[in-house]
Write a structure and sequence with these properties.
The complex is a heterodimer of chains A (about 450) and B (about 525). With about 450 residues, chain A is an alpha/beta fold. Chain A has helices at about 20-25, 30-35, 40-50, 60-65, 95-100, 105-115, 130-145, 175-185, 215-230, 265-270, 295-300, 305-310, 320-325, 345-355, 365-380, 385-400, 405-420, 425-430, and strands spanning about 80-85, 120-125, 160-165, 210, 240-250, 255-260, 260-265, 280-285, 295, 305, 335-340. In chain A, strand 2, helix 7 (about 130-145) and strand 3 (about 160-165) form a beta-alpha-beta unit. In chain A, helix 15 packs antiparallel against helix 16. Chain B has about 525 residues and is an alpha+beta fold. Chain B has three domains: about 1-75, Roll (Ubiquitin-like (UB roll)); about 100-210, Alpha-Beta Plaits (2-Layer Sandwich); about 280-519, Rossmann fold (3-Layer(aba) Sandwich), CATH 3.40.50. Chain B has helices at about 20-25, 80-95, 110-120, 155-160, 195-200, 260-265, 290-300, 315-325, 360-365, 375-380, 395, 415, 455-465, 475-485, 495-500, 510-519, and strands at about 1-5, 10-15, 50-55, 55-60, 75, 135, 140-145, 170, 180, 205, 220-225, 235-240, 240-250, 280, 285, 305-310, 330-335, 385-390, 405-410, 420-425, 430-435, 440-445, 505. In chain B, the strands form six sheets. Chain B has a seven-stranded mixed β-sheet, sandwiched between helices. A five-stranded mixed β-sheet of chain B has the order 2-1-5-3-4, with helices on both faces. In chain B, helix 2 crosses helix 3 (about 110-120) and helix 7 crosses helix 13 (about 455-465). The chains are: A alpha/beta (about 450), B alpha+beta (about 525).
C-alpha cells in the first residue's frame, strides 16, 4: 500500500530546516485554516482522527486534550503545552531526525495545538544530549518569530503564542511527563504523584498538556486532510503512520515511516534490508528498550500496531502479554538481534542503564534496579546459582507497577521477558558457573 | 461525612480525610514511612499500598494519596497487599546497614517494627551494600547517617514546608540516592529536633539524646512544655526518676507535631545544677514553710503581699489566691520574663512571652482583684513580706523586695535575694494545668517524683496555710481544679477528664471583660 508521508515528507530536501524551504514545502500553510476553525473544532478533528500519543503509551491524544478543564474552571490559570523532546529511550531516535530535518513542522503543529488548547506559552523540552538539535530548533523558532508565526497576533488572528526551547540536563526519567515538568520547573527531574494529572495540575500547578514530538507533528496534516483521511491509514484502532527507528543487526538501519499495522516480517525485509548474510533472526525489542523482548518466531507473526503487538490483550497485564509472546509498540524503537547476540550480556547492559537512570524516588525501583543489575552481572560472569534467577524474577515482579511512574515496569519487563523467552541461555550461565556447581 | 469501607468495616469520616488516618480511626494500621499528617504527600515509600475495590476488580494503590470519599472501599489484609509490604521491606533492607546494636533508633525504628510485623524474611541479598556518608554533623542538634536513610523525604519536606529553610535534599539517583546538605551548609533553625522525630529510621538522630538511653527503657508521660505561652504538647520520656528527653506530642490545634529546640532542651533543668532541692531560711538550711508562716504571723496580713505566678500552674495560683482571701493579704501578679529566658520569638511556636500560664494567672488575678506590677511597686514601702510564686520577681520588678519568700523550682535572682526559699516541684513532677496564649487549658501530668524536698506548689501553699491555721484543701490537684473551675466562670464545667489529651479552650470572655482584657 502506498502510504502518505505525513512526517517525513520534507526529509532529504536540502535545507529543509530553514524557513523558506519549509514554507515552500507547505509548512505553516495549514495555519490559516486552523485559525479559521474554532479551538474546539481542532480538538474534535484530533479526537476523530484517533491519533494516539507517539511517545510510547499510545494514549489517544484528543482524549488527553479533553482533560484540560474549561476556562471558567481554571481560576485564571494559564494552560501550558509542553513538547516532550526528551527522546531518551534506548533504541529510539525518530524525534531527533524529525527535529533535525523538519523543525518547522513541529512548530506548526505546536501553534495549531496551542490554538486548540488555549495555550499562549509553550515549551519544547529537549534532552541535554541534543544540544546541537536545540540550537537548530532555536534557529527555527527565531525564524518563525521573525515571520510572524510566533509572538503576538499570529497572522492577524489575534492569537498570541510564545514558544521556548528548554534544554534538560540529560536524564532518561525526564521523558516521563511529570518528571519533565519537575525538570522544567527547575526541580530535580523526578516524577510526580498522580492524581492530580498534568492536564488538570501540571507545570507550575497549571493545566498542562505534554505531547511527544511526533504526535504534535501530525496535527498540521490532520488539519489539511481531515480526520477521515487519517483514519483511512493504518488499522481501525491504531490509525495513521508511525516512525520506526530500526537498529541492530540489519543492513539498513534508520528511521522509517510506515502505516500502523504493517507486518513486522515485511518491515524487516524491506525497510530494514534484512539481516546480514548468514545470520538468523534471534530476537527483537520492538518498541524501545523498555518493552518485552520478542523471539524471532513471535515477531515474524506480528503486525506493527498497538493492539496486535499486545496480542489484543489489555496493556495493564504485561505478564499475560509476555506469556503470549507479545510486546508493546512503545516508541517504535525496533532493535534487531541476530543469532550472534548474547542475551544475558544484552539484558545486563539494559539493566546497567536502568540502575543508573532510576530517579531514586520509589523504594522498589530505587533499590531493585541496582540489585537486579548486580545479580545479572554475576549471572553474566558465571558466578550465580540457579536460585539467583528466581530472585531476579521475583524482584522484577515486585518492582513492576509498584512505583509512582512507569519506570519500574520499564526495567522489569525486559527482565521478565528475557527470563521467559531465553531461559536456556540464563540457565546455562548459572548451571555451569565459575564455582563449578553442577547442573543439579 | 463520607462513608468509607476498610476491610469490610464501614466508618464515617470527614470527606478528604487521608485514608491512612481514616483506617486508623477504624482501628486498622496501614504501615508507612513517607506519609506524615503534617507534611505534603510524597508517595515514594510504597509501604502503604492497599487494594482499592473498583469495577474492574481490586487495584493496588497507595493509601496516602487517597482521600476519603463516599463509597471508597479498601482492603489492607489481602495476600497481594501483604506481598507488597514484604517486598518493600526487602528492598528497603537490602542496602540498609545491620547496625541496630549501635543505632540509637533501635526500639523506635520503623524498619525494625515493620520487619517484625510484615516481613520476617531471610535476607536474599548477597551483593555488597551501597556505601554512603556516615556520622555527618549537619547542625547543632542533628547527626546524619545517610546509610540508614530510607529516602522517605520527610526531612526534605519539613525543611521546605515547615521551616522554609530547605537545607536537606536528596542527591544522586537510583540506589546511590542519598540525603544530604549542600556543601558548607548547616541546619540553621530552631526546629532541628523535629527532624530526628520525623525520621522513621536512624538516619537523623538527636545529638542531645544519642547514646543516653535505650528507648525501650523509657516511659512516656503526657506533659506541656513550659518554655513559653504556646504550650506545646509534649511527651516526657523518663526512666526511674530521670528525664531523658521531651518529644512533641501531636496536637493539631497547638503545635501540630512540632516543638522548638529551646523548649525541647529544657528537660535538662529538671535535674540540673540550678535546681532547688532544699529549703533555705536566711541562707541556711531550715524549715521554709514554718519560717514563712512565722514571718507572715509576725508582720500581720495587711503587710503581706502574695504574688501569683505566670510560671505557676492554675492550681497553685488558685491555692495562693485562696490563701490571700483567708488571710486578708493583698494579691498581685507581675507579667514579664525571668532572668535567663531566651528572648526569641518567631511567630511560629516560639512566643515572646516565656511563661506557660500568663493567661491562667491573669484570669485568676482578675477574678480575685489582684493588683499588677505597678500597684505592687507602689505598695512595696508598706510591705514587710512578699511571697513570690515561681516567678522571678526581682528581675521583673527590677528592684529589691523586702521580706521576700520565694517558692521556686530553680535558682534565680529572686531566690538568691529571698529571706525564705521553699523548693517546689518542676512541671514534670506534678499533675496540674496551664492555660496557653490561645486560652487553651491543658493538662500536664506527673512523670517523675519531685527531687529533694520539693513538692508541687499547690501542696506547699496548702502546707503554708495549715501552718497559719487555715485549711485550703489544695494538696490534691484534681480536687483543686474542680474548685477552681466552679469558681471561675470561663472555666465552668471543666474537669481533668473533660480536658482530654488536647485541652479545652476557655469559654469566651463576656463582652465587658473583653474591654478589660484589651488593656
Amino acid at each position: 500500500m502506498d502510504v502518505p508521508r505525513i512526517l517525513t515528507a520534507n526529509w532529504g530536501v536540502p535545507d529543509s530546516h530553514r524557513l523558506p524551504v519549509a514554507r515552500q514545502r507547505g509548512v505553516y500553510g495549514r495555519l490559516p485554516r486552523a485559525f479559521g476553525m474554532a479551538p474546539a473544532e481542532i480538538t474534535q478533528v484530533v479526537k476523530d482522527s484517533g491519533l494516539r500519543g507517539r511517545g510510547g503509551a499510545g494514549f489517544p491524544t484528543g482524549v488527553k486534550w479533553g482533560f484540560v478543564p474549561p476556562a471558567e474552571k481554571r481560576n485564571g490559570k494559564p494552560v501550558y503545552l509542553l513538547c516532550n523532546a526528551d527522546e531518551s529511550e534506548p533504541g529510539t531516535f525518530k524525534d531527533r531526525y524529525l527535529m533535525w530535518l523538519d523543525p518547522h513542522l513541529l512548530i506548526e503543529g505546536m501553534i495549531i495545538s496551542s490554538r486548540a488548547l488555549d495555550v499562549h506559552r509553550a515549551y519544547i523540552y529537549i534532552r541535554g544530549e541534543f544540544r546541537f538539535i536545540a540550537r537548530r530548533l532555536e534557529q527555527a523558532v527565531n525564524e518563525a518569530y521573525d515571520a510572524g508565526f510566533l509572538g503576538k497576533n499570529i497572522l492577524g488572528s489575534g492569537f498570541d503564542l510564545d514558544l521556548h526551547v528548554h534544554v534538560g540536563a540529560g536524564a532518561y526519567i525526564c521523558g516521563e511527563e511529570t518528571a519533565l515538568i519537575s525538570s522544567l520547573e527547575g526541580e530535580k527531574g523526578q516524577p510526580k504523584l498522580k492524581p492530580p494529572f498534568p492536564a488538570v495540575e501540571g507545570a507550575w500547578r497549571s493545566p498542562t498538556i505534554v505531547n511527544n514530538v511526533e504526535t504534535l507533528a501530525v496535527v498540521p496534516w490532520l488539519i489539511e486532510h481531515g480526520a477521515a483521511a487519517y483514519k483511512a491509514i493504518g488499522t481501525p484502532q491504531s490509525p495513521g503512520t508511525k516512525l520506526l527507528s530500526a537498529s541492530g543487526h540489519i543492513r539498513t538501519p534508520g528511521v522509517y515511516e510506515v502505516a500502523l499495522g504493517y507486518p513486522a516480517a515485511e518491515f524487516l525485509e524491506k525497510e530494514c534490508g534484512g539481516l546480514l548474510p548468514g545470520r538468523r533472526l534471534k530476537a527483537v525489542i520492538p518498541g524501545g528498550s523498555s518493552v518485552p523482548v520478542m523471539t524471532a518466531e513471535h515477531l515474524l507473526k506480528s503486525n506493527l500496531d498497538y493492539e496486535s503487538m499486545q496480542r489484543n490483550l489489555p496493556g495493564g497485564d504485561s505478564n499475560k502479554i509476555i506469556e503470549a509472546g507479545g510486546s508493546y509498540l512503545g516508541s517504535g524503537g525496533f532493535i534487531v538481534m541476530d543469532d550472534t547476540t548474547d542475551m544475558v550480556e544484552g539484558l545486563t547492559n539494559l539493566l546497567r542503564f536502568y540502575a543508573h537512570e532510576s530517579c531514586g524516588q520509589c523504594t522498589p525501583c530505587r533499590e531493585g534496579c541496582g540489585w537486579m543489575y548486580q545479580i545479572l552481572c554475576r549471572v553474566r560472569d558465571r558466578e550465580a546459582s540457579p536460585g539467583d534467577l528466581a530472585v531476579l524474577r521475583d524482584l522484577a515482579d515486585n518492582i513492576h507497577s509498584k512505583t509512582i511512574c512507569f519506570f519500574g515496569a520499564s526495567a522489569a519487563m525486559p527482565v521478565q521477558s528475557h527470563l521467559i523467552h531465553f531461559r536456556g541461555e540464563f540457565l546455562e550461565r548459572v548451571q555451569h558457573n565459575a564455582r563449578g556447581a553442577g547442573a543439579a | 461525612m463520607a462513608k468509607v469501607k476498610i476491610n469490610d468495616v464501614e466508618i464515617e469520616v470527614a470527606p478528604g480525610t487521608n485514608m491512612i488516618d481514616a483506617a486508623q480511626q477504624a482501628g486498622v494500621e496501614i504501615p508507612h514511612y513517607c506519609y506524615h499528617p503534617h507534611l505534603s504527600i510524597a508517595g515514594n515509600c510504597r509501604m502503604c499500598t492497599v487494594e482499592t475495590e473498583t469495577p474492574r476488580g481490586p487495584v493496588l494503590e497507595i493509601a496516602c494519596n487517597m482521600q476519603a470519599r463516599d463509597g471508597l472501599a479498601i482492603r489492607t489484609d489481602g495476600d497481594r497487599v501483604k506481598q507488597v509490604r514484604k517486598s518493600v521491606m526487602e528492598f528497603l533492607l537490602v542496602n540498609h546497614p545491620l547496625d541496630c546494636p549501635i543505632c540509637d533508633q533501635s526500639g523506635e525504628c520503623r524498619l525494625q517494627d515493620y520487619y517484625m510485623d510484615h516481613a520476617r524474611h531471610d535476607s536474599r541479598g548477597v551483593e555488597a551494600k551501597v556505601s554512603k556518608h556516615k556520622r555527618q554533623d549537619i547542625g547543632e542538634q542533628i547527626l546524619l547517617d545517610a546509610e540508614r536513610c530510607v529516602q522517605c523525604s520527610r526531612c526534605v519536606r519539613f525543611g521546605d514546608e515547615v521551616t522554609h529553610t530547605g537545607e536537606l535534599r536528596l542527591m544522586n539517583r537510583g540506589d546511590h540516592t542519598e540525603i544530604g546538605m549542600f556543601p558548607g551548609e548547616r541546619l540553621n533553625h530552631d526546629y532541628q529536633g523535629n527532624l530526628a522525630d520525623i525520621c522513621p529510621v536512624g538516619a537523623l538522630t538527636a545529638k542531645d539524646f544519642r547514646f543516653e538511653r535505650r528507648v525501650w527503657y523509657l516511659k512516656e508521660t503526657d506533659g506541656v512544655c513550659t518554655g513559653c505561652s504556646t504550650g506545646c504538647n509534649i511527651s516526657v520520656c523518663h526512666q526511674e526518676g530521670e528525664v531523658f528527653r521531651y518529644l512533641p506530642r501531636r496536637n493539631d490545634e497547638v503545635n501540630k507535631s512540632w516543638m522548638c529546640d529551646p523548649g525541647r532542651l529544657r528537660h535538662h533543668e529538671v535535674g540540673g545544677l540550678e535546681r532547688l532541692l532544699k529549703a533555705r531560711v536566711n541562707g541556711q538550711p531550715g524549715d521554709g514553710v514554718a519560717a514563712a508562716a512565722a514571718s507572715i504571723k509576725a508582720v500581720g496580713a495587711p503587710k503581706v503581699a502574695l504574688v501569683l505566678g505566670t510560671r505557676a500552674s492554675n492550681e497553685a495560683n488558685w491555692a495562693l489566691a485562696q490563701l490571700g482571701k483567708a488571710l486578708g493579704a493583698r494579691l498581685y501578679w507581675v507579667a514579664g520574663n525571668d532572668a535567663g529566658a531566651i528572648e526569641k520569638s518567631d511567630g511560629f511556636l516560639m512566643d515572646a512571652d516565656k511563661n506557660p500560664n500568663t493567661l491562667g494567672c491573669r484570669l485568676l488575678a482578675e477574678q480575685s482583684g489582684a493588683g499588677d506590677a505597678e500597684a505592687l511597686k507602689a505598695a512595696l514601702p508598706e510591705l514587710a513580706v512578699v511571697l513570690a510564686l515561681e516567678d522571678d520577681l526581682v528581675t521583673r520588678l527590677g528592684q529589691a523586695i523586702p521580706g521576700l519568700v520565694a517558692l521556686a523550682a530553680k535558682e534565680s535572682p529572686t531566690t538568691k535575694a529571698a529571706a525564705v526559699v521553699i523548693p517546689v516541684a518542676h512541671p514534670v513532677e506534678m499533675d496540674c494545668t496551664y492555660t496557653n496564649k490561645q486560652g487553651r487549658v491543658q493538662r500536664n501530668r506527673r512523670a517523675t517524683n519531685p527531687l529533694g524536698d520539693a513538692a508541687p506548689a499547690y501542696a506547699v501553699v496548702d502546707r503554708l496555710a495549715a501552718a497559719l491555721g487555715k485549711s485550703l484543701g489544695t494538696q490534691m490537684p484534681v480536687v483543686t481544679f474542680l474548685a477552681l473551675s466552679r469558681a471561675v466562670p470561663r472555666m465552668n464545667g471543666l474537669d481533668y477528664k473533660s480536658l482530654g489529651p488536647g485541652g479545652k479552650l476557655l469559654a469566651p470572655a463576656p463582652a465587658a471583660a473583653l474591654g478589660g482584657e484589651a488593656k
